[in-house]
Amino acid sequence: MLSRQDSDMLGVVAGCLFGVLLGTVSGLVPGIHSNTIAGFLAGAAGPLLILFGAEGVAAAIVATMVTHTFLDAVPSTFLGVPDPDTVLAVLPAHRMCLAGHGEEAVRTSAIGSAAGFLLCLPLFALFMLFLPPLQEYIDWGIGLVILFAAGLLIVYSKTPAWALAVFAASGVLGVFSLGYSYFSFGLFGIGEVLLPLLTGLFGIPVLLASMRSSQPLPAQNFSGLSISRRDILAGGLRGAVAGAVVGWLPGFSSGTANAVLVVRRSSDFESMDARSYLVATSAANTANAVLGIAALYAIGRMRSGAMVALGAIDLPPLSLMMAAAAVAAVFAYLLTITSSRFAPLVMRLNQPLLAKIVLVFLIVMSFVFCGPFGLLVLLVAALVGMIPGLVNVPRIFCMGAIMLPVMLLTLDLIRL
Fold first, then answer.
1. 107-125: per-residue pLDDT in tens?
2. What is the pTM assigned to this prediction?
3. Is the C-alpha dihedral spanning 368, 373, 378, 379 positive or negative?
4. CA distances from 186 to 189, 192, 317, 367, 369 (A)
């Protein structure tokens, strides 16, 4: 007969594996974010506590979150559909897919996520020790940092006037959507309004272009990674630092970190090295998730839906949560590499028909989780998201939907 300690450990292991499974589903299926799965775990906490125990449920939440940051590269690459954390990574990844290097893009993203996880661990320790006493000053300066970053992006664009217009239009839409997010009432209660907002801005325009295209996606060929170890380390470190910073700061997301990563001349964004950027953005995505755990344990701040779900139960030891995150990262890396090998199967599908199916699925998902308000946001966001293609402006400026509300909020100019 198992002792109490053995039973608790078995629950943690089972919960971790269950989280890996859920994270795989949320990563591979377009439109399902890890926050959605976290909400499901929180809502089903009663029976799950019986199955896994409190520590097992916590391990499931952490494992889901970490696994998702690896697997979400697959639909971003092959379908061009983002979630709130891959809205910018989808651009170079899908471009590589159109050039026949989709499998390489997914593998590069997986390496970036793995690098981000490993490189953010020292930052995790430093943040836990030194940042809590400085939190009050950090909160005050966030809006100014975003203002500076957005200003650089716009000034160094090819057409600053159009860049400003797209940034402002998406920003106003973001303020409206987040300000009235309590209207996003779906079948499961209040839904995450970022789902229709960012899907409309970044996913719908890509799908509509795929539906109009009569040319099938090219055959995918993989003959190895075309990126050096030095570039992997440099991109992973850059992404880990950016992801760690926004993982600690209130109101930021991995999407914001990815925007900061391209504050360099945004006019070069469409032609920048896709592989190095994928490593950096994937590293930022995973580091952001991991440092969210540090923020919860150190200062009680909940940076994501997953952390809100975790904070709703008795927090287990931090070492246990980091062990669950590490196990999930290993499984997620292997699953992502395996998923990339199924690229030929995806390529045999009728791409315009597949785009239509995904489009209908995303519309249904927006309604299910956010109701009529979600459909309204999705429609307006799709209209705004088509502007960059019409005026030849990089779609990065649609990140105003996130950056402007956070900037105004932290400068105490609006209340959301």
1. 999 999 999 999 988 888 8
2. 0.72
3. positive
4. 5, 10, 35, 7, 4
